[in-house]
Amino acid sequence: MMKAYLNETWGSVGPGLWQGKQMLVVSTAGGGRSTYGKNGRVGVELKNIFLPMKASALHCGMEYLEPLVFEGINSSQLENYKQALVERLKN
Q1: CA–CA separation, 40 and 45 (whole Å)
Q2: How many degrees, rounded to 5, is the angle at CA 28 between CA 27 and CA 30?
Q3: Phi/psi of residue 16, each to 5°?
Q4: CB 70 within 8 A of CB 80
Q5: Is 80 exceeded by the pLDDT of residue 15?
Q6: Which residue among 31, 74, 76, 83 has the highest number of C-beta atoms inside a 10 angstrom radius?
Q7: Cβ atoms of 29 and 35 closer than 8 Å
Q8: Confidence (pTM)
Q9: pLDDT of residue 68
Q10: Neighbour-count burial for 42-72, b at 16+ CB within 10 Å, e otherwise
Q11: Cα separation of 2 and 22, whole Å?
């Protein structure tokens, strides 16, 4: 549903508006390796869950950047997550 929404929304604003822009998906998930990954319950890496986002970005002419995902989230690591995000945005 998210992909359909993005295609509809982004596609209705005019051709070329998103051309050349970058998309960076940043996400958190409470589950860790037991949920995501080849041997996890879901069976795919968390970053690959966003494949529809990549399709929408490419459909609009955007450059899709490797997602920044944090798995097994806990509050004691918030400063590390913040620093990882800052570092990623610098590049």
Answers
A1: 9
A2: 155
A3: 85, -10
A4: no
A5: no
A6: 31
A7: yes
A8: 0.75
A9: 92
A10: eeeebbebbeebbebbeebebebeebbbbbe
A11: 18
Amino acid at 40: G
| Average pLDDT taken over every residue of the chain | 85
- H-helix or E-strand spanning residue 83: helix 78-90
What is the C-alpha to C-alpha distance for residues 53 and 66, in angstroms, rounded to an integer? 11
Q: State how far the Cα of 31 lies from the Cα of 37, in Å rounded to an integer.
A: 10
The encoded tokens of residue 37 equal: 């990954």
**What is the structure's pLDDT at 11?**
67
From start to end of the chain, where are the E strands?
A: 22-23, 26-29, 63-64, 68-71
Which positions ≥6 away from 28 have C-beta within 8 Å?
A: 69, 70, 71, 73, 81
| Tokens describing residue 1 | 């549903």
Per-residue pLDDT tens digits for 51-80: 888 988 888 888 999 999 888 888 898 999
